[in-house]
Amino acid sequence: MERKMEENTVRDVETGSETGGEDALVGNVNKLTVSPPGHSGALRKGHLVFDACFESGNLGRVDYISEFEFDLFIRPDTCNPRFRVWFNFTVENVRETQRVIFNVVNFSKTKSLYRDGMSPVVKSTSRPKWQRLPAKNVYYYRCPDHRRNYVMSFAFCFDREDDVYQFAYCYPYTYSRLQHYLASLERRNLPYLKREQLGLSVQQRHLDLLTITNSGKSLRSY
């Protein structure tokens, strides 16, 4: 049975303007609600609101397939449009016991640990510790509806209406978290650790060199 994608309505929560198409991949979605075709008026519970405008976030577009299914498009790595792997986004305005299937449809890799039992991670407002989704709810496969590209689909059931849920490819480790950790090491004035700035990245972020010494021997890493 051929799967038919309905014309979706994607609306910015703050402005009310409709967006969509390839232009949505230029930047991350920002408090974007995806409502059923033909819907107008006030936002209802169960009209999911997606957001990826935060550090390490990545989600460029959302297509409404049905009340229970959504196609997700991730943006490519910075400075390399060939690689599309990472995703990290939040979902809110959910309905209690609402069951959905999310399809990440534009992965650039044919091989993935998702084929060998790995699964995405999730946390929510009331449960801030990352947890892996059950592997039985995750599928990585060639999809005939997407030119036989590899798609990762996962099923999820929302259980708390007031929670904001966050999904990611794996446990995020942000640049800010790294900088806070390195700063905490510097404050300890460890005699065997030296931190230097090698330069700046293309996006003007610090590139650190750590020199760690022990028993007269020096090991360097970054």
Automatic annotation (TrEMBL):
Record region (Disordered): 1-26
Keyword annotations from UniProtKB, A to Z: Carboxypeptidase, Hydrolase, Protease
GO molecular function, one term: carboxypeptidase activity
Domain Cytosolic carboxypeptidase N-terminal residues, every copy: 51-137
Compositional bias per record (Basic and acidic residues), positions renumbered to this chain: 1-14
Highest taxon, organism lineage: Eukaryota
Cofactor needs: Zn(2+)
Keyword Protease recorded: yes
PANTHER family: CYTOSOLIC CARBOXYPEPTIDASE, CYTOSOLIC CARBOXYPEPTIDASE 6
Protein name in the entry: AGBL carboxypeptidase 4
Species name: Seriola lalandi dorsalis
